[in-house]
Known about the structure:
Elements: H1 10-15, E1 24-30, E2 33-38, E3 43-50, E4 56-64, H2 69-84, H3 89-106, H4 108-123, H5 126-144, H6 154-166, H7 170-189, H8 219-230, H9 236-248, H10 252-256, E5 263-264, E6 269-272, E7 281-284, H11 287-300, H12 321-328, H13 339-350, H14 356-362, H15 381-400
Antiparallel strand pairs: 1-2, 2-3, 3-4, 5-6, 6-7
Helix pairs in contact: 4-5, 4-7, 5-6, 5-7, 6-7, 8-15, 9-11
Amino acid sequence: MGRGTNKLTDRQCRTAKPPEGKQQLKLTDGGGLVLLVKSNGGKQWQFRYRRPSGREATMGLGVYPDVPLSKARERRDEARALLADGIDPIDQRKAQRSAAASADTHSFEAVAREWWDAVHRHKVVASHANRNLRRLEQYAFPKLGRRPVSAIEPPDVLEALRRIEALEHVETAHRVKTLIGQVCRYAIATGRGSRDPTADLRGMLRSPKTRHLPAITEPAELGPLLRAIDGYRGQPTTRAALQLAPIVFCRPGELRAAEWQAFDLSSGTWDYQPSKDGDPLVTPLPRQAISILRELEPISRSSRYLFPSGRTPDRPISDNTLTAALKRLDYGGRMVAHGFRAAARTILVERLGWGIEIVEMQLGHRVRDAHGRAYNRTQWIEQRGVMLQQWADYLDELREASDTEPTADRDR
Length: 412
């Protein structure tokens, strides 16, 4: 820097105060660098210059002493070098900030959170959406979060997934791979990505071990279980939940979190959202289910939930309640709450002759037509009503039978 610069000292900067009665004091270091000292004790570095257009301008360089004299001089010199090349330092700073902001909105984490908020949470129930967000936060963001989504390559994703595999969370690795793919496809659709790197990872992960949950699917074994449930001596709400579980065969989490406001006992329907996606399912209730609910009303109708927790009535019973109750009935290892779904699917299709599409819809699964379009879940409601009533009647016969399997009326 030429003559007439670097006039200030650290001591001058440190001790400078405006004169008595003045609001501010300007200390000039030369080359356009000024320290503006205010009466309230604040001190700010400024660079004053003439823009390439000829207009005068002032650019802030930071607050003293956070930015010491030496650093302020570096920033002044950088700004002067830009001016020598015909570049306005203020315009340069705006461009850099814009690029940084763009990079923030184009990072994998930013795109993923936007996808979750704009798309995913509206398609699945809240608990499932929140679980998927936690998976991204725990497994994807630490490795990929700050990377521009367009720069993520298959090896980057594979490295993140291998870390999950190393924890023996193979099924989680597959779930995270699916989520990353959905985020990348959203980035393509919104103009921030060009490809889905997970498409090249087919076969790269170990296959998850198939978990077979204990389930009784033989009618002759189901009858004694139903009788045992009727004789359950624990909480009345737990017994009611166990009695409803085989009749409606929804997911255990959907049953335990069922809310009274979703039931219309006059019309005999239960309108809820299956936990795997956000499409509502209207379930016609057979008369046996309505009877159980009528008996339950005076016990839990004052609560939001059909099956409130005994300790905290404003929350439903826990995940483990029904499985623990089955263990108390000496069915531990042979039957879990989820097993009623397997029993219903097997018997309705193989023994009672119902079409797989209707059964799958009642199970809360997506059913698609020949063109790949998902059926509306209010579809086949009459047929499902007939099916559920026949199923409940069949369970009654199993409960009352001794050694012979009942013959259900299959006329529909």
